[in-house]
Amino acid sequence: MQSELSDYLPLFVLLFLSSLVAGLVILISIVFGPKRRSKSSPKVAPYESGMHAIGAGQRRFPVRFYLIAVLFILFDIEVIFFYPWAVAFRQLGLFGFAEMLVFIGVLLVGYVWLWKKGALEWESMDKE
To answer: Strands (DSSP E) along 46-108, which ranges?
Structure first.
């Protein structure tokens, strides 16, 4: 029992130290950080171009941007799982091949959905 708990000691020390550092950073920012913002402060003045902003600072993005993000995630997941599968292809046998076919099928459903939504039509992005 004692040796099993001693195996976890470095993990507990790491959790304790990381929590301590996070707490110290928050405490330091509260103690030394700004207490209130003044409307006439130079900190809220415009920067870069020197001109005041026109309109809202936050605007809504078209749904196409989110579709592109989903497309990126699909490509990213595909690459992440294809490399280990290709390395261990011979050891996985027919079962590994069938599993990858199921995975490719799921990805294909995502690609078809994005295609139907028009996320693959890049020139139509300028029309919005």
So the answer is: none
